[in-house]
Amino acid sequence: MFREQWGETSERGGCYSQSNRPQKEASYAGPGGGGGAREILALASEEGQGVGKARILSSLQGVVAPKLVWIKFQQEAVFTSVTPPITSGNENERLHTRPHPGGLRESLEGGVFQRLFTLRFQDTLRRCMMLAMQLLRGAVKHTGRRPQCSVKQLIPVVPGTTSTSQQLPAFRGTQSSFCANTDSDNPRVLITGGLGQLGVGLAELLRQRFGQNNVILSDIRKPSYHVYHSGPFVFADILDLKNLREIVVNNNISWLVHYSAVLSAVGENNVAVAKDVNITGLHNILDIATEHGLRVFVPSTIGAFGPSSPRDLTPDLCVQRPQTIYGVSKVHAELMGEYYHHRYGLDFRCLRYPGIISADSQPGGGTTDYAVKIFHAAVKTGSFECNLCSGTQLPMMYIDDCLRATLEVLEAPADNLASRTYNIHAMSFTPQSLTQEIQKAVPHFKTTYDVDPVLQAIADSWPMALDDSAARRDWGWKHKYDLPELVKTMLSHITVSNRRAQDF
Ligand SMILES: NC(=O)c1ccc[n+]([C@@H]2O[C@H](COP(=O)([O-])OP(=O)(O)OC[C@H]3O[C@@H](n4cnc5c(N)ncnc54)[C@H](O)[C@@H]3O)[C@@H](O)[C@H]2O)c1
């Protein structure tokens, strides 16, 4: 049978046909011949085929030459099934049963084909398994109102088995009391974009409430010494889905506060980046929150409204046609979050923050940044150049109110939440009325105006005051800081921290 097979192959005119290689055949005398090995190598090099062909020949011949034993070993897995065993029979039989050189190409092709087939089969199997996993995930997402339960079964979180670099080690803080409160009933919170104006303050508030180790701050920037040593911190790029998923799983996260964003003024100068961070990043957050059954908080903004929205006492539900990429991305976030809530049962919660004013942290490039900078200027230099018109009225809030509102809405019983997106409001003022309030404490303080037309256009399209009656009714929202209280607090904080800095 072998004879027929190999013979038939040679008839097809393979490149090693009997007629064109008669003298070489004599050297294929039998296994173990050192001369055979030499011939094989000579043949291979003469054919310009390199050692590859010699390997095959040696394998077929069973040649035992020091170099070729290894070669045979290398090729065995690939060619075994196409190599006829030539270990018995007399010389004549071997001469006829040995693979004819004309059949070698066939052998080679058969072997390569088999190898390719094996690789392709393995590859196909791997792809099938990946596809099956994707389909399973998709099926879970698309069929149930509560996908997180099913997904949990697919991706079990086994405490103690997750020890990759993304799992945070025990907190590095020096105060042992920080580690004391690790109550398992408390949520485990991840804050994205936590090194901006609001994240560090929120982490502080949540850590007081849920325990130091239960709140993980994250960002793509390096934290200051103080922030690094005041609680768990991890690098998290919201555009890296796998990294995010790893952090959520390895740290058993149950609540996610999504603060990463590119704000209005910066966004208008970097539309592509704003699109990526504010839209693609949000998709990652919603997908992960849904997969793992997280409660997710995403702040929206007064910037989610536009010139066609009612500008005074803007209600929760009205026309929203913002004219900035920031506003568009925030409307998108509101709608996507609510959609995931209705479609998949995601526990999505969202507040539309006004402009937030803080003493200890710098604003990140929004249209209302002037309302922070003005206080530092009042204390340091006694004068301020404002980039908005003196009469531009916008809704504002002191940071403590904003962070407390965030905690309150996160803790509100789901049944109380008639809506998933709420306006919150505290005060509205203009640069002029703010200047007048500051002058009560710093009489020589002066504001001049150098209006930025881009920022002014944005501000002119935003509400002057929000109607937040639904938040007050549904979960008891109540602001503590009005304009006089805000000015008093800001000036006092900044004065104290400036003095401390000078003393240091
Ligand atoms: N500060 C305000 O006045 C205000 C008002 C309304 C709404 N908000 C919203 O509140 C949230 C927090 O605001 P903020 O003032 O702290 O913002 P910020 O601009 O000060 O901070 C945003 C943070 O996001 C991080 N970030 C950017 N790209 C990232 C990425 N790819 N992955 C992870 N992190 C990334 C930045 O490093 C930065 O630390 C934002 O969603 C913002 O839209 C803020």
Automatic annotation (TrEMBL):
GO biological process, one term: L-threonine catabolic process
Compositional bias annotation for Basic and acidic residues: 1-11
UniProt domain NAD-dependent epimerase/dehydratase: residue ranges: 189-424
Leading EC class: oxidoreductase
GO molecular-function term, one example from the UniProt record: L-threonine 3-dehydrogenase activity
One Pfam family linked to the record: Epimerase
Pathway: Amino-acid degradation; L-threonine degradation via oxydo-reductase pathway; glycine from L-threonine: step 1/2
EC number, as in UniProt: 1.1.1.103
Name of the featured protein: L-threonine 3-dehydrogenase, mitochondrial
